[in-house]
């Protein structure tokens, strides 16, 4: 089928009063993306010629977030913004975008608060609208609890008659369980004419976009597109609905990964953001959080309560209980934890190990090197085959600046060593336990920097070790 000239208009100006938030509603996150990103990503899949967004409440913040992130979200269609100055309802929001409508043949209007919408449903609906040469089409679903939504009122022939808002519904209409999803397609010219006929309605004297459908029906077919998948219509108006939306999306995401060969021990308690990729035969225990753009390879094992944000984990990695990884990269065959912490810009090369209660920050841990117990390694370049004893600390901060520690290949670091940076230890050097290293150590050198043991015997006689 030849793609017609499609366009999408997203309404994102509303105050979102019921969220009780300083953050504009479209920017609240659901599984790692702001709500508006989910809507834009679905809109993008329709390959529209243009996308418009109506902004109002928090306009600048919404606009900037979209402009800064749209390419990362995969949105390539140029986005135009229209400011709604008076927040007088969804009808007045669309009116704010009149210059947009006047350029389009047809337009799909989407609410800015329905993150669960599905691109394939929208595509089917748009196609049906085009084939039917309709004036308008609304996506309707039957829901278990229609409270709060606009109801679809049908006539004696079961055809669309009008939409009645919850606030204006009488007892009979409140019983209707077929609701308006807030997603529509319009013939643009028909919509422009109908907008001019709107009058303020309801307790808040708002201009309802939903009233345009009955006006358009007087001139052109007004059709209902139904979907059995009612979850996709969930509108986020409150924190409770935000949590519901996240729960539904999480279940979708988890199903997707399981379908691709990932084992989730307890999917109800596994939190994977929409942008995460996971290889087959990886096993993930309960309580894990995989966030942002995280990528996990094949054959990895994540024990419970592992937290990973914006990081890359390659194949065959084991992450034991409670491991916490931020903005870092872990090569094949590494092993971390229990309770290891990689802070941003850490890189573990092949087969490296970072164990119990060790913290790594902005450091490279070379191939096969081990930092197994109770250590802090920051701002460090560590070569291959290094063994770091328990309790070793890089003293990277002098109160003003951060300094680098360089540890060459195959260095052996005894337990409880301090490296006072900047300092370099060359390959195959050995550092005695308890040393505080402040100066360069030559290759294969042995550095011991601790005071000699003194034993005071009972009689008061001094004896050296
Ligand atoms: C709206 C529909 C309702 C539907 C429901 C689906 C109307 C009148 N009612 O109700 O039939 O069942 O969505 O979720 O449209 N907005 C603006 N400017 C405004 C007011 C709203 O841009 O002045 C935007 C909001 O940001 C939001 C969308 O329009 O994205 C819908 O507004 P909202 O207040 O959430 O409408 P509902 O009461 O949920
Ligand atoms: Ca809503």
Walkthrough of the structure:
With 465 residues, this protein is of the alpha/beta class. It folds into two domains: 3-233, Spore Coat Polysaccharide Biosynthesis Protein SpsA, Chain A; 268-447, Hexapeptide repeat proteins (UDP N-Acetylglucosamine Acyltransferase, domain 1, 3 Solenoid). It has nine helices and 43 strands. The strands form nine sheets. Strands 12-15-18-21-24-27-30-33-36-39-41 form an eleven-stranded parallel beta sheet, with helices on one face. A hairpin with a 5-residue loop joins strand 8 (151-154) and strand 9. Helix 7 (188-196) crosses helix 8. The longest helix is centred in the middle third of the chain and has 21 residues, at 239-259. The chain is elongated and about 110 Å long. The mean pLDDT is 96. It binds uridine-diphosphate-N-acetylglucosamine (UD1) and calcium ion (CA).
What's the short story on this structure?
18% of the residues lie in helices and 29% in strands.
Strand and helix layout:
Blueprint: E1 7-12, E2 29-30, E3 33-34, H1 35-44, E4 50-55, H2 59-69, E5 79-83, H3 90-95, H4 98-101, E6 106-111, H5 119-132, E7 136-142, E8 151-154, E9 160-164, H6 171-174, E10 178-187, H7 188-196, H8 211-217, E11 222-226, H9 239-259, E12 263-264, E13 271-272, E14 277-278, E15 283-284, E16 289-291, E17 295-296, E18 301-302, E19 307-309, E20 312-313, E21 318-319, E22 324-326, E23 329-330, E24 335-336, E25 341-342, E26 347-348, E27 353-354, E28 359-361, E29 364-365, E30 370-371, E31 376-378, E32 380-382, E33 387-388, E34 393-395, E35 405-407, E36 412-413, E37 418-420, E38 423-425, E39 430-431, E40 436-437, E41 446-447, E42 454-456, E43 462-464
Parallel strand pairs: 1-4, 1-6, 4-5, 7-11, 12-15, 13-16, 14-17, 15-18, 16-19, 17-20, 18-21, 19-22, 20-23, 21-24, 22-25, 23-26, 24-27, 25-28, 26-29, 27-30, 28-31, 30-33, 32-35, 33-36, 34-37, 35-38, 36-39, 37-40, 39-41
Antiparallel strand pairs: 2-3, 6-10, 7-10, 8-9, 42-43
Helix pairs in contact: 7-8
This protein binds uridine-diphosphate-N-acetylglucosamine and calcium ion.
The site of uridine-diphosphate-N-acetylglucosamine has 30 residues, from strand 1, helix 3 and strand 10.
């Amino acid at each position: 089928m030849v793609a017609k000239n499609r366009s999408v208009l997203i309404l994102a100006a509303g105050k979102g009063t019921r969220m009780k938030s300083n953050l504009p509603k479209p920017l609240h996150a659901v599984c790692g993306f702001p709500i508006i990103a989910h809507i834009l990503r679905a809109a993008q899949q329709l390959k529209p010629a243009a996308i418009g967004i109506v902004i109002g409440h928090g306009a600048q913040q919404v606009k900037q977030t979209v402009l800064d992130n749209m390419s990362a979200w995969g949105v390539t269609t140029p986005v135009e913004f229209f400011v709604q100055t008076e927040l007088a309802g969804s009808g007045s929001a669309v009116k704010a975008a009149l210059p947009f409508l006047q350029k389009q043949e047809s337009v799909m209007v989407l609410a800015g608060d329905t993150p669960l919408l599905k691109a394939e449903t929208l595509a089917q609906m748009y196609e049906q609208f085009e084939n039917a040469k309709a004036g308008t089409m609304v996506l309707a679903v039957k829901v278990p609890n229609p409270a709060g939504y606009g109801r679809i009122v049908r006539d004696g022939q079961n055809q669309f008659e009008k939409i009645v808002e919850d606030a204006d519904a009488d007892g009979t209409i409140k019983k209707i369980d077929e609701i308006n999803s807030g997603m529509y397609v319009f013939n643009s010219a028909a919509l422009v004419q109908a907008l001019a006929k709107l009058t303020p309605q309801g307790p808040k004297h708002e201009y309802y976009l939903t009233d345009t459908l009955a006006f358009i029906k007087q001139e052109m077919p007004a059709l209902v597109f139904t979907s059995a998948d009612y979850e996709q219509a969930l509108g986020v108006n409150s924190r409770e609905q935000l949590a519901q939306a996240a729960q539904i999306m999480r279940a979708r995401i988890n199903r997707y990964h399981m379908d691709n060969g990932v084992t989730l021990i307890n999917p109800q308690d596994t939190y994977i953001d929409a942008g995460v990729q996971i290889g087959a035969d990886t096993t993930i225990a309960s309580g894990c959080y995989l966030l942002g753009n995280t990528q996990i390879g094949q054959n990895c094992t994540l024990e419970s309560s592992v937290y990973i944000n914006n990081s890359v984990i390659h194949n065959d990695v084991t992450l034991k209980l409670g491991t916490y990884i931020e903005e870092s990269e872990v090569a094949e065959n590494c092993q971390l934890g229990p309770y290891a912490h990689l802070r941003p810009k850490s890189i573990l090369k092949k087969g490296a190990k970072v164990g119990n209660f060790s913290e790594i920050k902005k450091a490279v841990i070379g191939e096969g090197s081990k930092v197994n117990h109770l250590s802090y390694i920051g701002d460090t370049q560590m070569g291959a085959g290094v063994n770091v004893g328990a309790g070793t600390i890089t003293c990277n901060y002098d109160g003003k600046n951060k300094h680098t520690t360089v540890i060459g290949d195959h260095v052996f670091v005894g337990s409880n060593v301090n490296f006072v940076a900047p300092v370099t230890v060359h390959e195959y050097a050995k550092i005695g336990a308890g040393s505080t290293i402040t100066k360069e150590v030559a290759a294969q050198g042995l550095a011991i920097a601790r005071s000699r043991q003194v034993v005071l015997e009972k009689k008061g006689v001094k004896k050296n070790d």
